[in-house]
């Protein structure tokens, strides 16, 4: 249903406009959010983040059959997975964030995008995929669950996040 391609600056205008939508701003932030990905590209590799070492980053856009950019997804690959307060699990693990074009909501784009990430050859070594979602973000929760990322807890962490996790092979 979607094909992933690297998120490059020529796709930025397509993605950035989505961040003017109040719901996108509520959960992710404003139009500067996707710009920061290019400003921070390559930074943090090898550094520790919440007990996990950053191995690499990935950022893609999802295109529909017509080639239109309909979603953006990306994150960091870590050497292990360690939700706050939980014991570490062996990795590699990919922590994800994603956004869907508001004009394409409720069309299965987010679910298809997350499934495309799990199936992407660049992350074939990843054994755990995780998306941190506020429980009030019902649409994102439904999308993650439909893609196979299930809540690891019913109780939000110290930031108010529930981690939705897919363990490859589980």
Automatic annotation (TrEMBL):
Superkingdom of the source?
Bacteria
Where is the N-acetyltransferase domain positioned along the sequence? 4-148
GO molecular function per UniProt: acyltransferase activity, transferring groups other than amino-acyl groups
Q: Which SUPFAM superfamilies match?
A: Acyl-CoA N-acyltransferases (Nat) (SSF55729)
Q: Which InterPro entries match?
A: Acyl_CoA_acyltransferase, GNAT_dom
Species annotation? Paractinoplanes rishiriensis
Supply the Gene3D superfamilies for this chain: 3.40.630.30
Give the protein name, as stated in the record: N-acetyltransferase domain-containing protein
């Amino acid at each position: 249903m979607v094909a992933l391609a690297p998120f490059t600056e020529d796709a930025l205008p397509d993605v950035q406009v989505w961040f003017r939508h109040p719901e996108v701003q509520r959960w992710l932030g404003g139009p500067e959010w996707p710009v920061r990905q290019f400003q921070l590209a390559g930074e943090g590799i090898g550094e520790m983040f919440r007990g996990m070492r950053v191995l690499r980053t990935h950022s893609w856009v999802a295109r529909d059959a017509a080639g239109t950019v309909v979603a953006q997804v990306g994150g960091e690959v870590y050497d292990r997975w360690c939700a706050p307060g939980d014991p570490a699990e062996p990795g590699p693990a990919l922590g994800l964030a994603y956004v869907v074009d508001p004009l394409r909501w409720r069309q299965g784009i987010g679910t298809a995008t997350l499934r495309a990430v799990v199936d992407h050859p660049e992350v074939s070594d990843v054994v755990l995929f995780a998306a941190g979602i506020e429980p009030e973000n019902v649409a994102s929760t439904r999308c993650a669950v439909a893609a196979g990322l299930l809540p690891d807890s019913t109780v939000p962490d110290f930031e108010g996040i529930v981690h939705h996790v897919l363990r490859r092979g589980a």
